[in-house]
């Protein structure tokens, strides 16, 4: 089976890179497939302060670059391709891409998830420069500044409460006139003196020259708009978007067991319901989506894939 890989990893974010590192270091014939630039969501983060061992100067891009160096050092093969079809049943898995066909004894799915975007002008340009999708990652950058949280579900309100530990004021902007979060979470939010609420409203534009400086909000009922400007002394403020995440799962719908939101279900060995198929990182059903948890998933998936191969082949 010279043309069959021991492990093929789909995705080159922290989970995929960690899996490639552990698999190649274990002398497994390893291929990592990525459709674009490596790194996933973390590459848009200007500073990574909560990854163990990272230095203050570390950015998402530099952290991923070091991971890539390690993967290459241990000899993992890397290819850019867009996988169009997967055949995961049977001992040998087949992945069909635009550039070729790949066969493997095991597959590690590390396709990740992407935040659901607002879609307004300025959002993309100012992501990582005041616009964020992760309070755990970026809250400390907004110490004693004002912050707006877009959304009204459990995640939005919980993240808003977390942000009150850092920001001097947190305003939840919700398109309806009441929150969708659980009542117990709502009660905590309404009691928090740092919390404010902007009802029936959406954000229609984010402005700034290299950093968020103002934002335009629209009342959905009255149609009125107003522009909020950063405090002159602050120079900026934060916009945290929590209107959901979207798992990148199209390839696997109907083929792998998922939860109601489309995240792949695994056990603690990262095994899916299909023998020889593992999942790692943000594509998994899990309580915390961070670089550190993705890296841990990738390591476990690779080690368990190695054991699977030893017992199966």
UniProtKB/TrEMBL annotation:
<dbReference type="InterPro" id="IPR023753">
    <property type="entry name" value="FAD/NAD-binding_dom"/>
</dbReference>
<comment type="subunit">
    <text>Homodimer.</text>
</comment>
<keyword id="KW-1015">Disulfide bond</keyword>
<keyword id="KW-0521">NADP</keyword>
<keyword id="KW-0285">Flavoprotein</keyword>
<dbReference type="InterPro" id="IPR050097">
    <property type="entry name" value="Ferredoxin-NADP_redctase_2"/>
</dbReference>
<feature type="domain" description="FAD/NAD(P)-binding">
    <location>
        <begin position="5"/>
        <end position="298"/>
    </location>
</feature>
<keyword id="KW-0274">FAD</keyword>
<dbReference type="InterPro" id="IPR008255">
    <property type="entry name" value="Pyr_nucl-diS_OxRdtase_2_AS"/>
</dbReference>
<protein>
    <recommendedName>
        <fullName>Thioredoxin reductase</fullName>
        <ecNumber>1.8.1.9</ecNumber>
    </recommendedName>
</protein>
<dbReference type="InterPro" id="IPR005982">
    <property type="entry name" value="Thioredox_Rdtase"/>
</dbReference>
<dbReference type="InterPro" id="IPR036188">
    <property type="entry name" value="FAD/NAD-bd_sf"/>
</dbReference>
<dbReference type="Pfam" id="PF07992">
    <property type="entry name" value="Pyr_redox_2"/>
</dbReference>
<keyword id="KW-0560">Oxidoreductase</keyword>
<comment type="similarity">
    <text>Belongs to the class-II pyridine nucleotide-disulfide oxidoreductase family.</text>
</comment>
<keyword id="KW-0676">Redox-active center</keyword>
């Amino acid at each position: 089976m010279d043309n069959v890989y021991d492990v093929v990893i789909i995705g080159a974010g922290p989970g995929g890179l960690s899996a490639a590192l552990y698999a190649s270091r274990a002398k497994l014939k390893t291929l990592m497939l990525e459709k674009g630039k490596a790194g996933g969501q973390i590459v848009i983060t200007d500073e990574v302060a909560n990854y163990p061992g990272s230095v203050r100067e570390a950015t998402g891009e530099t952290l991923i670059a070091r991971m890539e160096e390690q993967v290459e050092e241990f000899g993992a093969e890397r290819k850019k391709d867009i996988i169009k079809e997967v055949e995961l049943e049977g001992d040998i898995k087949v992945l069909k891409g635009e550039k070729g066909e790949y066969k493997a004894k095991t597959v590690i799915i590390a396709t990740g998830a992407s935040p659901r975007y607002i879609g307004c002008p300025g959002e993309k340009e100012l992501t990582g420069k005041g616009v964020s999708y992760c309070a755990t990652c970026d809250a400390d950058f907004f110490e004693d500044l004002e912050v707006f949280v877009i959304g009204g579900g459990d995640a939005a309100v919980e993240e808003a409460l977390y942000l009150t530990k850092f920001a001097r004021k947190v305003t939840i902007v919700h398109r309806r006139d009441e929150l969708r979060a659980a009542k117990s979470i709502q009660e905590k939010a309404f009691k928090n003196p740092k919390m404010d609420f902007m009802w029936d409203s959406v954000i229609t534009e984010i402005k700034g020259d290299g950093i968020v400086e103002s934002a335009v909000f629209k009342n959905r009922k009255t149609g009125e708009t107003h522009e909020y400007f950063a405090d002159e002394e602050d120079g900026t403020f934060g916009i945290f978007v929590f209107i959901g995440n979207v798992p990148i799962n199209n390839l696997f719908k109907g083929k792998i067991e998922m939860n109601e939101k489309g995240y792949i279900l695994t056990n603690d060995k990262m095994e899916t319901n299909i023998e020889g198929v593992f999942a790692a990182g943000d594509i998994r059903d899990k309580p915390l989506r961070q670089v550190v948890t993705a890296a841990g998933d990738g390591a476990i998936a690779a080690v368990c894939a190695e054991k699977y191969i030893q017992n199966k082949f």
